[in-house]
Amino acid sequence: VYHLRRPLNEEGLTLLSGDFDQLHNNNPYSPLIKALQEFARLILTGNKEDIEQWRTNILEAVSPNGQVLIDVLPELELIIGKQPPVAVMPPAETENRFSITLKRFIRACASAKRPIILFLDNFQRAEQTTFKLLESFLLDPSMANLMVLGCYRDNEVDGEHPLTQLITRLRDSGLD
Asked: Nearest CA to 125 among 36, 28, 15?
């Protein structure tokens, strides 16, 4: 997969990757965050005009909740600048705000001109929170410029595994 990065980039695609490793298995969204940190660093390698365009697009998408993402993606502050603090909310509302803001961020970054391919390795180690978030991404028609590729060890996944259940729900909804 990593050898595909350069040819895909030349074709106008961005390949990001993350791994559900055993050491960080209890950190929700850790491979997704790693991939988005990689993306933020990629943006920062651009020229000033490109970075300013990214800044404008991202701020339009995530304001007034930019700090929610900076808390997990500190590199993002170098692109969008310091953001106002967000209100403290109960856990369910905090998770919902994070999910919505993250979706808006990815939607602003993945375009028809520059789709994003998100490769996630060791998918069998993902936890329920990440499965739920990714399912919301994949079932949202406005996220059409994001492709998620997952690699997993089928000998570690049975019919009751959350990954198997996710795949079934996605197929039932018409996605493959």
From this structure: 28
Q: Looking at the chain, how many residues does it have?
A: 176
Q: How far is CA 48 from CA 14, 17, 22, 101, in A?
A: 20, 25, 38, 25
> What pLDDT does residue 4 have?
80
Name residue 17's beta-bridge partners: 119
- Residue carrying the six token digits 């998100």: 118
Residue 91 region, left (φ>0) first, then alpha (ψ -120 to 50), else beta?
alpha
Query: Which residue is listed with tokens 């040819």?
Result: 7
Supply the pLDDT for residue 34: 92
Whether the predicted pLDDT of 68 surpasses 70 = yes
- Helix, strand, coil percentages (3-state) for the chain, rounded to 5, are 60, 10, 30
In which band, very low, low, confident or very high, does the pLDDT at 25 lie, cut at 50, 70 and 90?
low
Query: What's the whole-model pTM score?
Result: 0.88
**Main-chain dihedrals φ then ψ at residue 61, nearest 5 degrees:** -80, -40
pLDDT digit string, tens, across residues 102-122: 999 999 999 988 899 999 999
DSSP 120: E
